[in-house]
């Protein structure tokens, strides 16, 4: 009797192999991909939508689309970028269907439990991002949170390269100003 | 990443990133995929049932058409025989 080859759990297998298995319809392999990618995808959609429940629903829709379209993926190495593009498209479809209402900065600040002083860095960033227009927010989040270049953002969002550069530049300026304003308000709250 | 990005904003984004628990989310996605698969199976089964019914009806109608042809043929023979 010969010793059997060691069996690797899916969690220990390289992603390319897991993607290849999922492309052939292996549901367990796809669940493993969901497990590996869910946190990054949900965080991205939370930054974009500023609503945890909505972001999770959009993330689930993204994974459902991925499951259906996975056999058409050209290369296993492209899975990450492909999935992110699916998430961005899912969010854009949602925005087109139901544009989110703009929230005023002051109105937002008074609704935070415990006042501005208790707001942490994440809350500040989320509130500041909420002040940006959807496309501006999309470009800023993809650049800063996902580390994508302007060219990559242009390809992923189908926006012109010049538009992407402009959105990132103006969005960054606005975000800097807003975060500075939050810092000042928090300092005032501490002093008061 | 070759584009110039603001260092403070990069730090803010990095600080705000938090790992999210997987179990419940993975279970929800798996359940939605299973539901979609069931729905597709149901749709396929419905198509199969409808196909079978349509096939039966077609066969029946074809058979009836042949009976009509037989009846017409018999009537024609009767008339032809009466005038003979």
Describe the protein's architecture and organization.
Helix content of chain A is 71%, strand content 0%. Chain A has nine helices and no strands. Chain A has helices at residues 15-23, 27-49, 52-69, 79-97, 105-111, 121-130, 134-144, 150-157, 161-191. In chain A, α1 (15-23) packs across α2 (27-49) and α2 (27-49) runs antiparallel to α3 (52-69). The longest helix of chain A has 31 residues, at 161-191. Chain A is elongated, with a radius of gyration of 20 Å. Residues 103-119 of chain A have low confidence and may be disordered. Chain B is mostly helical and 84 residues long. Chain B contains two helices and no strands. Chain B has helices at 7-16, 23-82. The model of chain B has no long low-confidence stretch (mean pLDDT 82). At the A-B interface, α2, α3, α6 and α9 of A face α1 and α2 of B.
Percent of residues in β-strands of chain A? under 5%
As a percent range, the share of strand residues of chain B is under 5%
The percent range for helix content of chain B is over 70%
The overall average pLDDT of chain A, rounded, is 83
Q: How many H/I helices of chain B?
A: 2
Our count of domains of chain A comes out at 2
User: Termini distance of chain A?
Assistant: 79 Å
User: Low-confidence parts of chain A, pLDDT < 50 over ≥5 residues?
Assistant: 103-119
Which protein chains make the most extensive interface, counting residues with beta carbons within 8 Å of the other chain's beta carbons? Answer: A-B, 35 and 25 residues
Helical element count of chain A? 9
As a percent range, the share of helical residues of chain A equals over 70%
